[in-house]
Amino acid sequence: MRPFTYQRATDAPSAVQALAAAASTNTALTDGAIQPLAGGTTLLDLMKLDVMRPSVLVDINPLSNAWSAVSLDGGNLKLGALARMSDIAANPDIQRNYPVISDSLKLAASPQLRNMASLGGNVLQRTRCTYFRDVSYDNCNKRNPGSGCAAMDGFNRTHAVLGTSEQCIATYPGDFAQALMALDATVEITGKAGVRSMPFADLHKAPGNSPQIETSLLPGELISAFSIQGRWPRSTYLKVRDRQSYEFALSSAAIALDVQDGTIRDSRIALGGVATIPWRAREAEALLKGQKFGDALASQVAEAAFKSAISRKHNAFKIALGKRVVSRGLQQAATMEI
Amino acid sequence: MTDVREKKPASGFNRRAFISGAAGAASLPLLAQAAGAENTAAQDPNLPVDVTLQVNGTAKSLNVDARTTLLDALREHIGLTGSKKGCDHGQCGACTVMVGGRRVLSCLTLALTVQDKQITTIEGLSQGDKLHPMQQAFIDQDAFQCGYCTPGQIVSAIACVKEGHATNDDDIREYMSGNICRCAAYPNIVAAVKQAAPAMADKQKG
Ligand SMILES: Cc1cc2nc3c(=O)[nH]c(=O)nc-3n(C[C@H](O)[C@H](O)[C@H](O)COP(=O)(O)OP(=O)(O)OC[C@H]3O[C@@H](n4cnc5c(N)ncnc54)[C@H](O)[C@@H]3O)c2cc1C
Ligand code: SF4
Ligand code: FES
Ligand code: FES
Which residues of B touch A18 (CB under 8 A)? Predict the structure, then answer.
């Protein structure tokens, strides 16, 4: 790990000011000249690996009192960005009204990590691509723009089949982001110019020609909260992985349905483990609207969800697996007792 | 190696660093007011910093590199080598300790960031010669072979019970999954958690 200057923010303005001061040297958040420190479970890991090399860490944990509140007002949910994964997973109101959120958090990482990790840090975690994490490989476009991609013809079993580009096929590894995608969440961003909001769906950027740019956050901006309109009691998160617990998804689906008298009025599907960014399967989910749920429909939706999938040497299994995860997830959501 | 502080050493947070830091970035003095007067300055990354940790009820003052993790502070600087370094990357749970009553991974925690919190390690569990019920249960149930993962398992298991996640075997397995055992003592670990859970509840009542 390289030496850094440690700064403790005392409140939101001081945090933003500190980030902005050093941000003038950043071209993008991912360049890492200055990084906010929340739970540290991504940041310290990658600093030890020399993948992230911040010269300044701004500890934003002192903002926890202000930024970790949960409110469920008039059917709208707001989650502070410094709330910890374990606390949100255990919240009975969220379990009842947004099971997809509590499931996605409960099935992620380990109890210790969930006690440490914040929601804001969680959505910004970096890919687990082994070539990205191992600096002895020079060719990683995400780490060294323009250097090539070792995974493309390397060992790519865990890599993405959706949203890939010629430059990068790294999987977005998180779980909670799929729940936010499915529920059309809004992300609240605090920066020097004040607070702005945008659809969560606009936060992550597909790799395209610049895989080093992962989000649309501007230098110095902080995620302060997430919000969701309406309640989604009929929602679930299904995660399939190499071992039963404490492992990243090979394929996962966040599903939310609104069913009235057996007819699906609204449906949301977001996929994890298979895509470069939290992936909303809009065309597929649209097939469910106005329909009665059944196995044939579920397979049709699953097919549609992976229509544009492109596999490499070792990850074609994710297409077959992903389809089954979608079908089973839909089945689970459709038959939930609520 | 051990540099538990006797006399006051040079610190990365000092007036000199403050002045040079302030010259470069006018906004820096706005920061870190909560960290105490000494820390209002920008810290020089090349100098050690003063860190005071509350470990097992005792304050330990150290002068360490800002990069020092809680795990390294405990093991290398305070001399509490019970917490183990398995992976140093959050993947194995051998370094599990309690910070502010919650189980966390000390390998991914910077010592600097937990100065205001109570830290409990495996060394702080027994009362004199009397083992914590979870320690006793690990012995009774033969819940280890090499023992390397055991301190982390025991700290994690106590948290697992306190969180209310030790009511059945499946839950125990799920909520103990953050602690890997290379010797695969898992069935015995589940048995130990089951043995200790009622004993811990009794202890709380009594
Ligand atoms: C062994 C292991 C297994 C894991 N398994 C899973 C899993 O199965 N599923 C899963 O979803 N995750 C998993 N994780 C990832 C883990 O959930 C994330 O590391 C964690 O959620 C990140 O949150 P944090 O608060 O620790 O972030 P940090 O490490 O503090 O920050 C992460 C990044 O976000 C930035 N940042 C943090 N907060 C903010 C903010 N509010 N605004 C702007 N920028 C910010 C930081 O500068 C940094 O670049 C695993 C991690 C490990 C080590
Ligand atoms: S897949 Fe992306 S992150 Fe992995 S080596 Fe290729 S460019 Fe780097
Ligand atoms: S040493 Fe901390 S999790 Fe392995
Ligand atoms: S007893 Fe050997 S690693 Fe668990």
Answer: 27-28, 30-31
